[in-house]
Amino acid sequence: MADPLPLVRGTLDVLVLKALSLGPMHGFEVTRWLEDRSGGALDIEDSALYQALQRLEARGLVTAEWGITDNNRRARYYRMTSGGRSHLRVETNRLMRYARTIADILGAAARA
């Protein structure tokens, strides 16, 4: 497998919101979902993930409450708010437009 890709600045919050759009998750579940969806290609550090969750909570885009995991451990479960859903829609469109633009530029034929 190739070296893991670093996250582009500003994308982790959107990726976390995408994971939480499926339902409440604790941090390890978010990380596992992102790693599964990327085929292990993304390098997500625990500290960066928890900073993103704290940032999203401070902005009112997610809420958190304590719960018990499947293996009977205490963990904070994060749930996306309606503001988080709106933010996810806007940022998804913006990032998709950005990715298409970069792909168009990199795929353009070179001029002589």
Radius of gyration: 16 Å
Total DSSP E strands: 3
Please state the overall shape, judged from the principal axes of the Cα atoms. Answer: globular
What proportion strand?
A: 5-15%
Unreliable stretches (pLDDT < 50, length at least 5) are none
Summing up helix and strand content along with how strands pair, one would put the structural category as alpha+beta
The number of distinct helices, counting runs of at least 4 residues, comes to 4
Largest sheet: 3 strands, antiparallel
Strand order of the largest sheet: 1-3-2
The overall pLDDT average reads: 91
Q: Tell me roughly what share of residues is in helical segments.
A: 40-55%
Instruction: Please report the distance between the alpha carbons of the first and last residues.
Output: 36 Å
String of helices and strands: HEHHEEH
Could you outline the blueprint of secondary structure elements for this entry?
Blueprint: H1 12-20, E1 25-26, H2 27-37, H3 46-58, E2 62-68, E3 74-80, H4 82-107
Helix pairs in contact: 1-2
Provide a compact summary of the structure:
The chain has 112 residues and is α+β, with helices and mostly antiparallel strands.
What do you see in this structure?
The chain is of the alpha+beta class and 112 residues long. It has 4 helices and 3 strands; from the N terminus they run αβααββα. It has helices spanning 12-20, 27-37, 46-58, 82-107; strands at residues 25-26, 62-68, 74-80. A 3-stranded antiparallel beta sheet has the order 1-3-2. The N and C termini lie far apart (36 Å). The mean pLDDT is 91.
